[in-house]
Amino acid sequence: MIKVGKLNTLKIVGSDNLQYTLSDDESNIVSLPHTNTLSPISKDAEEITVFVYTNKQGALTATTKKPYAEVGDYALLKVVAEAPNGVFMDLGIEKDLFVPKKEQRWPMVKGKSYLIHIYLDPLNNHMVGSSRLNKYIDRDELSVEVGDEVELIISEETDLGYNAIINNRHIGLLYANEVFENLRIGNKRKGWIKKIYPDGKIDLSLQPLGYEHILNSREMIIDLLKKRNGRIPLGDKSSPEEVYKILKISKKTFKKAIGALYKERLIEISDEEIKETKQ
């Protein structure tokens, strides 16, 4: 079965001066225009992986270009043209992605980028974009648990912090006081499920949870001390931002890790630095 808006591996069943003819196991036909290929296809090739979309005439069309995003994805895309009933966004392939006015949370303008969700219009099999992200968030069946490592896309800055799309399916919150870098809409990050509330709301963390993370941070600090001649310019009074800039961990994790190292008499701690003890 051919999946529109997705990458498909199809059989090459014919060709002429204008296009290749592709087919799946169910004999569904897709055209691959020569103009949609990045490089010549070997005469011996029997299969090819292509991205399939529906063209203006409603025919299934393929391209060897890889799009910026597929159906079901959330992606930050740029508006390249405006029309009376919507806008077109650059998808990285021959056909731009249409976003109707009714699917725009705020009016979109040419030259700016917006985070959108891509879905398939059931009426005509065309790919469509929407910036009304909440319509496509799954709140009924959670597929994550506390402690899970997940893929995040920053979707919105709020008074509390940042909303983030989780695994292209759910939405959660990163609290501002636990984020020590400048995040922007569309940024992708690895994250962890910190807490799940009875109503399905999710708290997120940009760092692993639990004691294993403390142990990993401890080893990282030891390695960095060796690389920096036994000194790191971070101490009890260092700001969370300074700690994150050097170690990419929170101030809380840093204090627990250096506390463990101090108890083992492996380091000395001052207000502004830690240094390796002489053995």
TrEMBL record:
It comes from Olivibacter oleidegradans. Residues 70-132, 145-207 form the S1 motif domain. Pfam families: S1_2, WHD_CvfB. This is S1 RNA-binding domain-containing protein. Belongs to the CvfB family.
